[in-house]
Design brief:
With 360 residues, this protein is an alpha/beta fold. It contains twelve helices and six strands.
Length: 360
């Protein structure tokens, strides 16, 4: 299958997903969010830093650029840092305030909290601390709105030395888990509350698991990821793994000389079928580097690129220790493991959207 056909097939999957995925609760949430936008002090449009344009929230497209709207690029730890800096400059040119964040980094959340408190004071234009401000988080599914709300709530309460049980917004890798608008306190003096809202719904969404893989197919998504990796420079970082392979072979020979009890003890600490273990990830990186760097064809030609991807699937089957039985099930297992490593940042950092070049 050529990359063009693959993209067309994935695009059809997105359309099918949109028809089945925009559920009644999502329609109701859309109306509720629209009604509250004029009433809150700040609107944080949470986007995925890997797709800063594709994860745009449709309901805010006609929202005027002002100090009330802030674009938050979440999951910065999974994106390409250099490209994100370009995106931040682009948003600045569009008169949009933006801020990059990793919801799971406490220091980063503290910076974000200070930034938001300063923005609230700027909007309110009041010096005293007796007022209450509300910030609403909006965005498409699975950009990390609830994780961000929880982190701001936790750090905000600790900073204010407040006691009592922490509230938590529902966080799940399954899109659509947040179904109601919930309120979490993130600051005192002034009191600041954040409203976590349900996600309301392109090809790149599937790559990041914003909607279910089964609506398109994990194999197709994995092929698409490999087409991105093969034409990027990320694999070049793994060059040393290829030279280390000879050293590993020498070590394996030494291990073969060990007593059976000592060898069993070492092997018990490794689980070859667990693709998240470091030694498996290193092997996957090495295989990807060697298949790309030794490929004789042109990656600009679709047929050559497709041929390389087929070669990689075969090599990855061994790297992931997937049984060599025939059938679609084997390739789907390889695809699922590969996508998981990509989505957790183990296979490099990518920003899938390109910055528009028509803006000076």
């Amino acid at each position: 299958m050529t990359i063009a056909n693959l993209e067309k097939r994935l695009g059809s999957g997105v359309k099918r997903a949109a028809k089945t995925w925009f559920s009644p609760h999502m329609a109701a949430a859309s109306r509720a969010v629209a009604e509250r936008i004029p009433l809150v002090d700040l609107v944080l449009e949470v986007r995925d830093a890997r797709i800063p344009l594709s994860s745009e929230y449709d309901q805010l497209r006609n929202f005027p650029s002002s100090s009330k709207r802030i674009i938050v690029l979440n999951k910065m730890d999974l994106a390409n840092r250099l490209e994100i800096k370009e995106w931040m400059r682009y948003f600045e040119q569009q008169n949009c305030i933006s801020f990059g964040v990793n919801s799971h980094n406490k220091d980063n959340i503290k910076e974000c909290l200070k930034f938001l408190q300063a923005q609230v004071k700027g909007v309110k234009k009041i010096d005293h601390s007796s007022y209450t401000a509300t910030i609403m988080l909006v965005g498409i599914p699975n950009v990390g709105k609830s994780a961000l709300a929880n982190s701001l709530h936790q750090i905000g309460r600790i900073s204010a030395a407040e006691k009592g049980k922490l509230k938590r917004a529902t966080v799940s890798p399954i899109p659509g888990e947040t179904r109601d608008i919930s309120s979490l306190k993130i600051g005192s003096h002034p009191n600041v509350y954040v409203l976590d809202t349900p996600g309301i719904l392109p090809l790149t969404f599937l790559m990041l698991r914003s909607i279910k893989d089964c609506l398109v197919g994990e194999k197709e998504l994995a092929q698409y990821f490999l087409s991105i990796l093969n034409r990027s420079d990320e694999y070049k970082k793994w060059e040393k793994l290829s030279t280390e392979e000879n050293e590993i072979s020498t070590i394996d020979q030494r291990v073969g000389c060990l007593g059976s009890s000592e060898l069993d003890s070492r092997q018990k600490r490794q689980y070859p079928t667990d693709h998240t273990q470091d030694f498996v990830v290193r092997e996957v990186r090495r295989v990807l580097f060697e298949t790309i760097s030794s490929f004789p064809g042109s990656l600009e030609k679709e047929k050559d690129l497709s041929r390389l991807i087929e070669t990689q699937f075969t090599a990855l089957r061994e790297a992931f220790r997937v049984a060599s039985e025939s059938g679609e099930d084997v390739e789907n297992k390889v695809a699922a493991k590969l996508l998981n490593l990509y989505r957790t940042g183990r296979l490099g950092h990518y920003t899938l959207d390109s910055v528009p070049r028509n803006i000076q």
